[in-house]
Amino acid sequence: MNSWWKKAVFYEIYMPSFADGNGDGIGDFKGIISKLDYLKELGVKGVWLTPFYPSPKVDNGYDIADYKNIDPDYGTMEDFEEFIEEAHKRGIRVIADLVLNHTSSEHPWFKESRSSKDNPKRDWYIWKDGEKDVPPNNWESFFGGTAWEWDEQTGQYYYHAFAKEQVDLNWANPEVREAMKDVMKFWIDKGIDGFRLDVINFLTVSNEFKDNPYLENDEQDHLYDKDQDGVLEAVQEISAFAKSHGDIFLVGEVGSEDLEVLKPYCGEGKLDVVFNFNLGSQSSFSVDTIFSEISKMEENYTEDQWPTLFFSSHDMPRHCERLAGGIDPELRAKHLAVLLTTAKGVPFLYFGDEIGMRNLVAEKKEDIQDIQGRTAYELAVRDGKTEVEALAIGNEKSRDASRSPMQWDDSENAGFSSGTPWIRVHPSYRDINVKVEETDPHSMLHFYKKLLKIRNSVSALQNGCYEKIERRGDALFYSRTDDQSTMYVGINYGAEKVTLPDWFDEAVPCSVQLVEEENTGYLAGQDCQIRVDHRGSE
Ligand code: GLC
Which residue stretches belong to region Disordered (predicted)? Predict the structure, then answer.
């Protein structure tokens, strides 16, 4: 299996926040097109676009009202086509975020479905009897509150795992599956190279509708509303369909940190890869977790299962601060950049991380744009919390942290837009921006460029398996090898010096070194080394 995606470093573009081409304060395709040379130079080979379809944007596009069009905020279909063409010209493939689990309540399918109990589309969604104010069961929405919404007109509840404006489709209905395959075909015909499949493990729910239990921390254990019977069959069907139309890459969002839950979704006949939250979504830094999760994936994944690597996304705070753990965020970010680009797996780099962007904090409730943050704020107020406490809770849950506009330069609005940005620009933009980092050889941007260059040119980094993985104190050492090259990586996350393992020391002479340094026999505190031995060449 040597598909194109194994060689690619992907870059996630959060549509509204990357580059605004028409001055309305919202990112768009014209803006992205103008930055394609930047992406090419950075070395990314794939771009993941968050949803760009027409949407009321209750959840910034993850509430789709028309699956076969472009939201006017992002441009026109012609802009999209131009973008695909220009990206491809530069050797950049494009994957589209596709939300198969739910539609916007404004989607014509749902409007039909809710119009009467005997409408042909009634069964496209999940409707249940119940009494007003007494929902069918205790299932909670992932944004807070009940997952059931009472529909006055037809006297039934409908199910929504997220906001009430994001209505869950009934994947047990074959017509729904066909409709979604038709959507996939539409975008494949437009030149899309793959899909990021949103909350793919949510497609089916248990048809017994039993109450979910609660965990010790009082949070609901979503036992019956995800990873249910029928979901793997649905995934296989989607995969077979996509693969019958070419080497279409499928990456699934399976919201779990448990490798045992993630594993069944990927491999031959299923999704190519899933997001490995087991490695990527730690809330605090731990070398232990990194070492054990990498080792676990190595032991548990079969040959056709390939990991993914990411540490930030539009759903989580940027890792340079989230995982700093008391050290300089820039240093932490550099350590994780090395892991991201050299460990085994498909790397997903979140926009702005390559320049070390920081997390946005809301100073007042009006600043909170994200539905998850706003809901948490409102529930806290309802529970009697003070304004200050509620704002803190809102900030903790809000995903705005990583959604502030890309910082291109130090001009007004960080060069993102000539209008008023839809979300505040992070105040750090005068020091942290592309323009300034382009001229500084020691910048984060240059560091990433160097790493991506190595990643793109060393085959062991793309296809190679681990030969060795070893932990020494706070340092991690591994080697990856294929028939052309072997690559040795040492990352010391701690401040103490660590002696190099024998096998690492023997890795010289090497033709590429990230950190030029004397062979001192130890890895200096908080340092990283990459050595690549090109077998038989150079
Ligand atoms: C995924 C998306 C997230 C969205 C949710 C509901 O987790 O990444 O942004 O809110 O699905 O569609």
Answer: 394-413
